[in-house]
Amino acid sequence: MTTRRTRPAPRPPEGTPPRAELARQARTVLADAVRIAHWAAGAHGPGTTAPLAAHALERAATALELSPAQVRAGWDRARLAGLIELHGDTARPGWRLRAWDRDDSAVLRGWVALFDAWSLVHAAPAGIEAGAVAEAVEAVPQVLSLLQLSAGPVTVPALLDLLGQRVAELHEERCEVPLGPGRPATAATAAGATADRPDPAATTGGTDADLNALLLDWALEGLAAVGALTLGHGHATLTPLGNWAVWVKLEQICVAAQSPAGNIEQSAADMLLGCARLTPGPARDEYRAWLAARTVGSAVAELLAVARGQDALLRGLAFEALRVVGAPAEPEVRAVLAEPSLRPYALLWLAEYEGNDPDDAQDVLSREEATWLWVDTAAAVADHGETGLLVRHLDTAVQGTVPALLDEVRAVGHPRTVQVLVALAAAHPDPALAKAVRRAAFQVHTGGA
Q: pLDDT: is 276 or 153 the higher one?
């Protein structure tokens, strides 16, 4: 199971700071975002979706002694870096925020998420056709590769030449005729031009070079805004963070072919969701590809962080991915046996790891642990499956009878018990059984016997 992990871990370029120093720099870049995320997660947080509501913006600016513009920028960065998660109309702390002060890997992943979203952090020039902006974003990785390989300042003309070449290649791949001198701009481009920042290609005599120059300036400013590079007079240089991030991306290309479903660069949660509807074989291929692009320690930590979340489906899938990790994950899995929400999964994982037949692994669970796992699995089915699956899930309970199951489910204390019972009552075709299940849900909800 671990053959893809046997190649030595590649070394970053000479001169790359240690991870602890890179994480310190990332914390500096995201300092305002972290302050705003802590504020939003506190008792006086905004409780509102982005963009930040005006009243919350004013409260945050006053409380944090920042300008409204700084608060708005920090709020967007906090969301993009995974420091804040939006659940309906409520902002909650993301797992990265909880790990921010102690986990360098969480910090670096948060910064990389912001780095990947640079084009959202820094608004594109007004009046530029959306297609041209998208082409520039698609061409930027080649610009970053040149900066990384040069290991020092690169002149803007050199970067502009590379950007122009890549954009021309994209046009050729799409069989498009490039806009040249004397050719009219598209109606969409002309209509979007503004007086304060006109679109060069929409003016008389505008050229691809003019447009590319404007887009390159925008891209360099956006990358500088997230701390990936610094701008000098006529040149750009990757920061240590930017250099390390581009190197990581280049390394990922080496294993990207192993990920046919394209989940290799996703977070653990997004990768697992992408694998949810795959059959076991293809899902394992995705897990292996995702793991191959990361160190074992950081991958295991991220999977366990997802398993601690509220989504029961992701909890089960996280342990499926940990089965692919194998022996290197054993100490971390054993360490979570003390966590009630993870203990049943960890016990099953360890039983299979130690050679027990998967069909017999359930024997390692106590009656209470098996009941807790039944509720957790039912929650996953209720959230992501079909109602028929939830009804059939009744047959997998160890109790044998519905009254016995309901008695033990009420006692086990799973946080999703009420929702599971309500969903089961709504799905079950037997009115008498549905009534009994609804009564049990009501008793759990009210604390009755």
A: 153
Other beta carbons within 10 Å of 163: 22
Residue owning tokens 């009115």? 431
* Residue 167 DSSP SS3: helix
Burial class of residue 444, CB neighbours in 10 A (0-12, 13-18, 19+): buried
Classify 155 as helix, strand or coil: strand
Query: In sequence order, what are the residues at sequence separation of 6 or more whose Cβ sits closer than 8 angstroms to the Cβ of residue 427?
Result: 387, 388, 390, 391
Q: What is the residue whose two structure tokens read 């084009």?
A: 119
Contact 127, 198 (CB under 8 A): yes
When computed from its CA atoms, the radius of gyration of the chain, rounded to whole angstroms, is 26
Q: Are 419 and 379 in contact (CB under 8 A)?
A: yes
Q: pLDDT digit string (tens) for 64-83?
A: 888 888 888 888 888 888 88
Element (H, E) at 229: strand 229-231
The neighbour count for residue 363, using CB atoms within 10 Å, is: 10
One-letter amino acid at 344 equals P
DSSP state of 147: H
- pLDDT digits 0-9 by tens, 236-258: 999 999 999 888 877 655 544 44
Tokens of 225: 């805004």
Residue 187, token pair as written in the block: 């109606």
